[in-house]
């Protein structure tokens, strides 16, 4: 066997090992129901849950608790996933900026069966201002009026 063949086989083996190790760590998109089932089975795997913040009839957010003067690293809210199941989400970090303006929210974490909530490790936001059907809002420059 030539040296180049041995090196090529070594590179392929390393690539396969990297792919297998990253697939094992990859989290999946699920609903709160499935996240609860996985937690009951004893898995500690992180999962992505996509949903939106729960609002009442007047458009106010339901169950949002953030008191930075008491604990700046504790934020909780109620989220409804894409399958219309709701759960309390606890995030032990400060409240993300623009969460209130976000259309969709992705929480990454695990279901906490003891406290009956989803323990988020990360919150990802989809802000409507970034995705306005390719419309750019511009302001016309104001014309200066000079009096002579």
UniProtKB/TrEMBL annotation:
Iron among keywords: yes
Keywords: Cytochrome c-type biogenesis, Heme, Iron, Membrane, Metal-binding
Domain of life per record: Bacteria
Coiled-coil annotated spans: none
Compartment(s) where it occurs, according to its Swiss-Prot or TrEMBL record: Membrane
Designated name of the protein: Cytochrome c-type biogenesis protein CcmE
């Amino acid at each position: 066997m030539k040296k180049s063949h041995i090196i090529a086989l070594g590179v392929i083996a390393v690539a396969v090992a990297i792919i297998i190790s990253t697939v094992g760590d990859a989290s999946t998109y699920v609903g709160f129901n499935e996240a609860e089932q996985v937690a009951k089975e004893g898995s500690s795997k992180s999962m992505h849950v996509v949903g939106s913040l729960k609002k009442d009839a007047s458009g106010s957010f339901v169950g949002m608790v953030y008191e930075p003067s008491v604990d700046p690293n504790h934020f909780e809210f109620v989220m409804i996933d894409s399958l219309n199941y709701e759960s309390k989400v606890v995030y032990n970090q400060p409240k993300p900026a623009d969460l209130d303006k976000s259309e969709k929210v992705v929480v990454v974490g695990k279901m906490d069966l003891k406290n009956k909530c989803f323990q988020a490790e990360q919150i990802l936001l989809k802000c409507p201002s970034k995705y306005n059907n390719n419309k750019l809002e511009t302001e016309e420059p104001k014309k200066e009026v000079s009096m002579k």
